[in-house]
Write a structure and sequence with these properties.
It is built from 15 helices and 20 strands. With about 500 residues, the chain is an alpha/beta fold. The structure holds ligand BES, manganese (II) ion and zinc ion (ZN).
Length: about 500
């Protein structure tokens, strides 16, 4: 793993070229480059019987890297991102430190223009150049991260794309680092500290609503869920205020930030508690996204809101049967203390609608196990009843490869949440449509007329098997997606 990756103008970079399958001779677009390099590309191709299959990669000496682009028909931005993902480790192994990206010569414009190509490649390289090693102790044998990689290209668009891609990967990795930090360290005040430090570095405004302040403001959800822990809850607000924002837009991103979810008195059983340090991945995604948005200077007003709490058991903890009053005055009968995410999110959504007057609001949460059963680790569940916002989120998801799939949210689902002795309950007596129950509950806290999307990322926010982009652990799902949504806002 490299210690750092950047763009620049290195002295003797290796050239990176891509070849599709089913070609008999070197494509015209590469002939000049081949000659300039003394025929090293065609020689490498011949001597290694390289036939351009997707996934093929050869490194010839210290100056030529050949990658297979596969079938041109199947090539897309995701394939280029994956290619970048496979590349980083191989480059490091080969002790290469500078690469001149020439993929645009053979990747068709319709697949990805220079900008998109550079971005996808750099994202892949940056995302795969990450692991969880900050808790390696005396008994670990992992080699330390070493050296640096500098990326360049003769194409200006590719260079610009790579610069953006690296920023997006870096911001995603920042979210992953916070997610991977265990709950004995990552407590609400620690998250607030991380947010403040990140804000200072990037010029974001950061404000933290303390426990006492949350009580005063009537945030019954956040207060009740979090009061059972010695580490009291808080709500973190990060604001991106560009100097010339696109007029008439204010995007608000809300992320569930449970630093640990034991289930509370409705305790998680049969080892289902293990992994609940990741119950803050919505919050870290939102944090990573606003970091990227600030670094990329996206000309849109964006606010990130992180309701942050720890769901534990104690003499102070809330219990099933409690009835609590939320920030907007809606009363909730607690039927299950393990349906806690929607309680802290409800307050955050209501607070955001009242104080920030969003033109669009998106919440991201590891909300239900049900969405994992229904959709697996293939995509996030999406709920959105506003056509414009839904199209924007779906388009962003296609380009970032963080897939979403729409689920229904109807009046019948909302009625399903109505309780006997309070306005609503936090979980119905039956588990039917259980991820939709979560969304229906949240809808009670979004003011009418504000376009809203709920993303349930419980299945995608961490992986148990490594892939081209991710090691086992948090994926940072949502960071690039939300940054892309912001970039598309009002454009
Ligand atoms: N944090 C969990 C959801 C979760 C489960 C995330 C598995 C990641 C992996 C959430 O707070 C929860 O406990 N949900 C309950 C809801 C139920 C009590 C209505 C669930 O999914 O079982
Ligand atoms: Mn829970
Ligand atoms: Zn939870």
């Amino acid at each position: 793993m490299y210690r750092s990756i950047r763009t620049g103008s290195p002295r003797k970079p290796a050239i990176l070229v891509g070849l599709p399958t089913q070609i008999s001779r070197l494509p015209k677009a590469l002939q000049e480059l081949d000659e300039a390099h003394g025929g090293r590309i065609s020689a490498a191709r011949r001597s290694r019987m390289f036939n351009g299959k997707a996934g093929d990669l050869i490194i010839e000496g210290d100056d030529v890297i050949l990658v297979g682009l596969g079938d041109r028909e199947q090539l897309d931005q995701n394939a280029i991102r994956s290619l970048g993902g496979r590349l980083a480790g191989r480059l490091h192994q080969a002790d290469l430190h500078a690469v001149d990206v020439q993929l645009h010569r053979t990747v068709p414009e319709q697949v990805a223009d220079g900008d998109a190509l550079g971005q996808a490649l750099a994202e892949g390289i940056g995302l795969s150049n990450w692991r969880v090693d900050f808790f390696d102790g005396k008994a670990s044998k992992n080699a330390a991260a070493s050296g640096s990689l500098t990326l360049t290209s003769s194409d200006q668009e590719v260079r610009g794309g790579m610069r953006r891609g690296l920023i997006l990967a870096e911001s995603t990795n920042e979210a992953r680092r916070i997610s991977a930090t265990p709950p004995n360290i990552c407590i609400p005040s620690w998250v607030a500290q991380q947010a403040r430090a990140a804000a200072k570095k990037t010029g974001l405004q950061c404000k933290v609503i303390s426990f006492a302040e949350a009580v005063k403001q009537g945030m019954g959800g956040l207060v009740n869920v979090g009061k059972g822990s010695a580490h009291k809850p808080c709500m973190i607000i990060l604001e991106h205020r560009p100097s010339r924002p696109r007029a008439g837009h204010r995007l608000v991103l809300v992320g569930k930030t449970m630093t640990y979810d034991s289930g509370g008195y409705s305790l998680k059983i049969n080892n289902s508690m293990k992994g609940m340090k990741y119950d803050m991945n919505g919050g870290s995604a939102v944090l990573g996204a606003i970091l990227a948005i600030a670094r990329l200077k996206v000309p849109v007003n964006v606010t990130a809101v992180l309701p942050c709490a720890e769901n534990l058991v104690s003499g102070e903890a809330y219990r099933p049967d409690d009835i609590i009053t939320m920030h907007n005055g809606v009363t909730v009968e607690v039927t299950n203390t393990d349906a806690e995410g929607r309680l802290i999110l409800g307050d955050a959504l209501s607070w955001s609608c009242r104080k920030l007057k969003p033109t669009a609001i998106i919440d991201v949460a590891t909300l239900t196990g049900g969405v994992v059963v229904g959709l697996g680790h293939f995509c996030a569940g999406m709920w959105c009843e506003d056509d414009g916002l839904r199209e924007q989120v779906e388009a962003a998801a296609v380009s970032t490869g963080e897939r979403v799939w729409q689920m229904p949210l109807w009046e019948e689902h909302r009625q399903f949440m109505q309780a006997k002795h309070a306005d609503i309950w936090n979980s119905g007596p039956s588990r039917n449509a259980h991820p939709i129950q979560g969304a229906a509950f949240l809808s009670y806290f979004v003011d009418k007329g504000i376009p809203w999307t709920h993303l349930d990322i419980a299945g995608v926010s961490a992986v148990e098997k490594p892939d081209d982009l991710h090691v086992v652990g948090p994926t940072g799902f949502g960071v690039r997606l939300l940054a892309e949504v912001a970039a598309r806002t009002g454009s």
